[in-house]
Design brief:
With 804 residues, the chain is of the alpha+beta class. The chain is built from 18 helices and 36 strands. 32% of the residues lie in helices and 25% in strands.
Length: 804
């Protein structure tokens, strides 16, 4: 915990330093805006500070602001590892290796599923309602300005102009709601806070106070009942002029005010270090301390602190694609759904993804972004709004490094540093292994057992999660983070894998049991459907990536030479990733089974293409096999969920197929995006936003293959544009401009002073200042001619690249 606080301190120091500048910068218009209020939650607009979230309807007659606090979950800590798992593991493995898949499936079903097998849900904190007392309105606009992180609703009623501004402040740990008019003494709102269950709400003077405790009913599927997590919320009302009175014990009425500011915060008794609630924490006292600290601060001061801290993160990256279009966002999306192309909407979508990530995963928050980021209106959310680890949580963090939001990974790292404690119990009790792991789902209470059903027997969830920790080091070069956080998590995960692997009849190291997440195949012996086998292709790709990352990390730290050698020896004896002789695509399982759902949403066997690094142009058979795999998936109806479509964008970007990548960017907007630009699984699931954002970045810059490739998958529809601030591995910050689909110039800033290698499709030169450094030379990569320049750099040194 100490190191995480130090890291957070470094981030906050950067924010404070940025506050010292008085320079005014004009940023391009980046707004989601509408000419009508949200008709439902899926049209409302989000704000968040990593811990608190709000969905704003912008209703001038009865404003509704649905609010969340990241740790408000039903449930409790339970060791749900099946006590029969370990003693039946060898029998299950024996049946799998002997091809007796049905027998293995039954044994595993009877003995491996968690007890209990399900988690409970992330919950809404409640709703704030503001009745402005107006009867008719005109000149209505609501908008979310990404440049400031402020939601604004404006309208006119009876000649009075109303302006409502809302933002989630990270520095002050509150959601701020400010309302003012152009006529003094004309504000007369009634303010109510509401929650349907498990809470009491009372109005005292100028505050609405909620206290509650989640009461879970006993459920054999989800765990013991009882009085579980405690929570509280406070809404403080600051009125400029006017008066505040209590109505009906739970409503506050403001009369004849010039301006009203509401300060909202909430808390629970969750303790991350315990992965459990902690009765020494008083949630209401936490709320009191937050509000007391700022209750005498005026709105402008709150806003200025928010603006500078927020801007320090958000404005690191800019992107322009095509001409600006000044039309409401829902109208623009509608034109795309009708077949039009809107590159500027793509740029807005990209920046919105960055906004959502920094709003749902950063200090003062301590938990990672869940399936809905931080925004959920339900008591039992879709998929419980859980941390889903067979792609979804991983996808949430795909854009973190490349889009220059590295600190958003810190809550994820911190969470898993604690989660490995329960994960080590699962490794030991279920598999008799060292290290730690988890399966396809977890929650804030640290569930790591086989959950939901036997298809959840996916022990590679833990190893796959380590990719984000290594990527944080690869992009930042932070060896302290590597030594203290990333490498211990990776090494312990690799130790689990070493103990979990067994030899098959051919003498290869294989995983068993194994599955390709949520997909099924036909058992060749019985013709029955099943999902259980050994050494599914995804497992082999994950292990190769994990072991390679461990080897690179240990070498960078100059430690664990013998451990490195062990990993190399095991890697050399893993099954190869194969091309199916039947389909011509990447073979999904250890044998060329016939799949039940050829258009399945998961494309797990392509992990080696993205986010992995095994499938590149220098492996042409696998590279072509990956192309064939995607084509066949799509022809059978694949990509029908938002996150699946987003993954396809990343695939095509890695395949350097610009037009296909662009086609699926538009398809993501067309088929899987709501009017507020939320990803629509359906229903809303935020991973598609994050996967879409990373895919757009991957079209503009890649660095996974040992060099920085500029504009690797630039479609003709984006023939003119520019970006600044995107990151490459090695801690390089990149800016590019292009016209007629050709690079005009690029700037490379070497933040760390590492060796640099640049790749582009046309001849170019690299200059430092006014002196020519070198001219790129032709290089051949799998039969394709590129131009490449390699050169050493100094820390904070900048280079300019222009066409030769």
């Amino acid at each position: 915990m100490k190191r995480f606080l130090e890291l957070i301190g470094i981030v906050l120091m950067g924010a404070l330093l940025s506050m010292c500048s008085n320079e005014t910068i004009q940023y391009p218009d980046l707004r989601l805006w509408y000419q009508q209020p949200a008709v439902d939650w899926n049209a409302a607009l989000p704000v968040g500070n990593g811990r608190l979230g709000a969905m704003i309807y912008g209703n001038p007659f009865l404003e509704q602001i649905q609010v969340n606090e990241e740790s408000l979950w039903a449930g409790s800590q339970v060791n749900s590892n099946n006590p029969n798992a370990l003693k039946n593991l060898k029998a299950i493995q024996r049946e799998l290796l002997n091809g007796k898949l049905q027998e293995a499936f039954k044994l595993a079903t009877d003995n491996m599923i968690g007890t209990p097998p399900r988690i409970r849900s992330y919950q809404t904190m409640g709703d704030i309602f503001i009745d402005y007392g107006v009867k008719d309105t005109a000149n209505y606009i609501r908008q979310l300005d990404l440049n400031t992180g402020v939601h604004t609703t404006t309208f006119t009623s009876n000649g009075v102009e109303y302006t409502e501004n809302i933002f989630a402040s990270a520095p002050d740990n509150v959601i701020v709601i400010n309302v003012k008019t152009n006529k003094k003494g004309s504000l007369n709102p009634k303010i109510k806070f509401h929650r349907d269950k498990d809470a009491t709400i009372k109005a005292i003077k100028d505050e609405l106070i909620m206290e509650g405790q989640i009461i879970d009913q006993p459920d054999s599927a989800s765990g013991p009942g009882g009085a579980h997590m405690k929570f509280a919320a406070k809404l403080k009302i600051l009125s400029k002029k006017g008066s505040i009175t209590v109505e009906q014990d739970s409503i506050l009425s403001v009369s004849n005010a010039d301006e009203v500011t509401l300060l909202f915060t909430a808390a629970t008794d969750y303790n991350l270090s315990l992965l459990n609630f902690d009765r020494s924490i008083c949630p209401l006292a936490v709320c009191d301390a937050i509000i007391t600290h700022i209750k005498k601060t005026d709105y402008q001061s709150l806003y200025k602190k928010h603006e500078k801290e927020y801007g320090n993160m958000y404005h690191r990256v800019s992107l322009t694609l095509g001409n600006k279009i000044n039309k409401p966002t829902d109208k623009r999306l509608e034109t795309v759904k009708n077949g039009a192309d809107d590159p500027d909407l793509v740029a807005l979508y990209f920046q919105y993804g960055r906004y959502l990530l920094m709003s749902s995963s950063r200090y003062p928050g301590v938990l990672p972004a869940n399936l809905q980021g931080i925004w959920n209106k339900e008591y039992v959310a879709p998929w419980n709004s859980d941390f889903h680890t067979n792609i979804n949580l991983q996808m949430n963090y795909w854009p973190a490094e490349v889009t220059n939001l590295s600190e958003t990974v810190l809550p994820l790292s911190q969470f898993f540093s604690y989660l490995q404690k329960t994960g080590s119990i699962t490794a030991r009790e279920t598999y008799g292994a060292r290290g730690w792991t988890l399966h396809h789902v977890t929650d804030p209470f640290g569930r790591t057992a086989v959950m939901d059903g036997i298809w959840g027997a996916y022990p590679m969830g833990g190893p796959w999660m380590t990719f984000s920790f290594y990527e944080h080091y690869a992009f930042t070069g932070d060896k302290t983070y590597l030594k203290e956080i990333a490498y211990p998590l990776m090494k312990s995960s690799a130790q689990f894998v070493l103990d979990f692997l067994i030899k098959d009849k051919e003498g290869q190291w294989v995983t068993a049991p194994s599955n390709s997440p949520e997909n099924r195949f036909y058992d060749p012996k019985t013709g029955l459907e099943t999902n259980m086998t050994y050494a599914a292709t995804m497992d082999i790709e994950i292990i190769n990536e994990l072991f390679k990352n461990c080897i690179h990390s240990a070498k960078a730290l100059n430690i664990d030479e013998a451990f490195r050698d062990t990993l190399k020896n095991v890697m050399a004896n893993l099954p190869p990733v194969k091309v199916s002789p039947t389909t011509g695509g990447i073979q999904e399982w250890i044998e060329d089974y016939k799949e039940v759902w050829p258009g399945h949403r998961h494309m797990s066997h392509l992990l080696g293409l993205y986010p992995g690094t095994m499938i590149t142009p220098i492996a042409p058979k696998l590279f072509q096999g990956a192309k064939t795999t995607i084509e066949k998936r799509l022809s059978a109806g694949g990509g029908h969920t938002g996150w699946s479509r987003a993954w396809i964008i990343n695939f095509y970007a890695r395949l350097l197929d610009a037009e296909k990548a662009h086609e699926h960017v538009n398809a993501l907007l067309n088929k899987s995006t709501l009017s507020n630009l939320f990803d629509n699984h359906p229903p809303f699931q935020i991973d598609g936003n994050f996967g879409g954002t990373s895919g757009i970045a991957e079209m503009l810059i890649q660095s996974h293959a040992g060099y920085i490739q500029l504009l690797p998958a630039l479609p003709k529809e984006w023939s003119k544009g520019s970006y600044t601030g995107l990151k490459a591995r090695g801690n390089f910050e990149i800016g590019c401009s292009w016209t007629d689909s050709k690079l005009t110039n690029a700037t490379i800033k070497s933040v760390k002073g590492n060796h640099c290698s640049i790749l582009y499709t046309l001849p170019f030169i690299v200059k430092k200042g006014n002196s020519k450094v070198l001219e790129a030379v032709k290089t051949d990569i799998a039969g394709t001619t590129y131009y490449e320049a390699e050169f050493p750099t100094q820390k904070d040194e900048e280079f300019v690249i222009t066409l030769n």
